Amino acid sequence: MPKMPAMDAVVSILMDEGVDTVFGIPGAAILPLYQSLSKVSDKIRSVTARHEEGATHMADGWARITGQVGVAIGTSGPAGTNMVTGLYTAWADSIPMITITGQVPRSQLHREGFQAVDIVNIVKPVVKKSFIVMEPAQIPWVFREAFRIAREGRPGPVHIDLPLDVQKAEILYDPEVDQALPVFRTPPNPNAIRRAVELLLTAERPLILAGGGVINAQAEDLLVQLAEYLQIPVSPTLMAWGAIPADHPLAVGTVGIQTHTRSANRVFLESDLVLALGARFAERHTGDLAVYTQGRQFIHVDVDPGQIGRIIEPQLGIVADARLALDALLAEARRQVAPRTPGAWVSRVQWLRESHDRVMDMDTVPIHPARVFKAINESFGPDTIFTTAIGLYQIWSGQFQRVYRPRHYLVCGQAGPLGWEIPAALGVKLARPDQEVVAVVGDYSFEFLVEEIAVGVQYQVPFVMVMLNNGYLGLIRQPSKYQYQMNYGVDISYDHNQGMGMDNVAMVEAMGGRGRRVTRPDELEDAIQWARQEARNHRVPVLVEVFIEREADAAMGPALDQIREFSPVIDREPALAAPGQG
User: Thiamine pyrophosphate enzyme TPP-binding domain: which residues (predicted)?
Assistant: First the structure.
């Protein structure tokens, strides 16, 4: 068995596991790993972030778009603590990722050495597994196990801490006799599958609720095949947007109390059976559980046994990989029944979808938020990949945007860290250089990790940012106004910039990007086309900053039950109550 530097073995494993890009910031305690990475710079690209949190979000975006394990690297001490938000985000959204930190030498671990922190225990609540490698000979097997854990079952992040003296060691390792560990995919119980199909066939108004587990299992094709075979409408959760194209006859939009379509909420409340695939029933999806569950049965399929029965008690629970479950459901459906044709329920769903759409063509000044998304929908094609984070702008995005492909609408759904969308867009664009990438941003979220725009300029990563700027912390102001009847601490505007806060265009241009400000709706489409062209020509991030109505609200459900509907609907019916409103 040949001897080699331990970090050379790590780099060999990274390449074998499909990693072609790593994101991070070098520092004294992690330099041996960077030294080994420098030897394979033609095979693994190392992207230097401006903040370790930004590096984790880049790795997160890379993982979401590729379906592979993302990798972020940092040195010791604050590098690891800076990564916690990124790890939490990946853990909450089931994203496979490995973070690697340097550590003081083993002899200093108990002596409070410089930048020595027990990062392994700090991150434990937000990772599937955390390791500190105390013996150099363990390195290959820890890394192989980390990749297996990140991928298997419910995907998620894994952390590895490497003491400096462990990194510097030599170990016995031969890449020729090593390989990735097998990943077990849980098959469904055939009896449960048979019962599930029987329930679907006897239901009058069935609905398929497709969650992020469908995306993780790369099962979108089987989802659509099952829906078409049995003629069952499909509502994707926010994490599964694009699992069925927005213009598919069986697509009904997203159910929820914030990111939702009125037609989807109406369809859900009229359903009598819900087949939930890889969905967690998060509270901003369900609202009031008594209303959400009343009058309908549930079949819950999830690869994580701990998810079944956690929020609701299903009529039938099935522990299985989403792709294997859908494959079995489709085979069983074909055994039990011939292909179905659209019936009264499908016709009803299509009518609801067509008649309950929100108006988006307002031409008011200041610009109405819905008008921004009309421009986005019409300016970008179905292959465009979008990233967005958390705030009113993301809620409007979830209500108004149209998505036609899986893994083309990426959002930090459960954790919701501000600033996620820009570094995530960088990771996505580096993984998909030939596709157009757009970050939908808010003015406050923009300020959290704005420095990562410099990474896009440095590495010539062109993408477009469309900012909705109300200068007013809208998502905080809205509940503050309606629930607490106050307006305190929610203003971030500056008088010298039309009352809209920091000069975001100047900030982008200071780092080498391009920017343009829009104040009228008739300028939107031209500005977006300009940004697309500038990104292509100059290969830098480009910002379109849109000044919107300062006090515009987003239509929401029971969390803010006094809020009026966001805009009128085509059929002018009364506002539809979201699940939880009755």
Answer: 390-546
